[in-house]
Design goal:
Blueprint lengths: L1 E3 L8 E6 L3 H17 L4 E6 L2 H5 L10 E4 L8 H11 L4 E6 L5 H4 L6 E4 L5 H15 L6 E6 L2 E6 L3 E7 L2 E6 L5 E5 L5
Parallel strand pairs: 2-3, 2-4, 4-5, 5-6
Antiparallel strand pairs: 1-3, 7-8, 9-10, 10-11
Helix pairs in contact: 1-5
Length: about 190
Amino acid sequence: MSNLCVEGDEHMFRIAICDDERQFRKRIHDILIEYMNENDILYEIDEFESGKDFISLGINLAKYDIVFLDVNMDELDGMETAQKIRKVSNDVFIVFVTAFITCAPQGYSVGAIRYILKNNVNFPELIFECMDAISLNMNYVAQKKKFNFNEGTKIVALERLLYIESRLHKLEFLHYGGQVKKIFNIWQTR
C-alpha cells in the first residue's frame, strides 16, 4: 500500500513501514499521516509485509528517508533487514517498532534512531517525538507563518503556499499542487 502526497518536492519524507502484522502497519501509517498533516509536510508512505519484501528493492531502498521496522518477522527479521539496509545506505533513519525490548541494545549496532515498543500506552506520542527528532536531524525546518482568524490561529507552511486570495472577507490559501485549499474568515479586531 502506498500513500502519496504531491510528488517532486525536495522536502518530501519517503517512509517505509516493514511489519508482518497488518494492524500494526496500519496503526503506524495512520499516526504518520496525522503527524505529516499536522506539520504540513509532504510525504510518501509504502508498506511491506516482510523484511525480505523490503530488501528485494535492492539499491532502490535507499530512496527512503525513514524505515519503521518490526524486529520479529519471519524469514528475515528486523535486525537482519537493518544490517542489509546499512550495506546499501547509511543515510536511512531506522526506527525499530516492536513488542520486544530484548533486542534494543542490538539496534544501536545498526544506528537506529529509536526503539519504540508497540504496547506502550504513549505509542502515538513516541512516534511523533521520533519524527520530530528525525526532522531535526534532516535539518528540515519549514518556515511557517501564524495567521489569526475568526476560527482561531492557523499556522501555514510558507514553502508550500502558492498564493493567498481575498474574497468577501475570507482568505483562500492555495497550497502547492492545488490539492489543499483552506478558507478562513478574516480576523476582525473591534
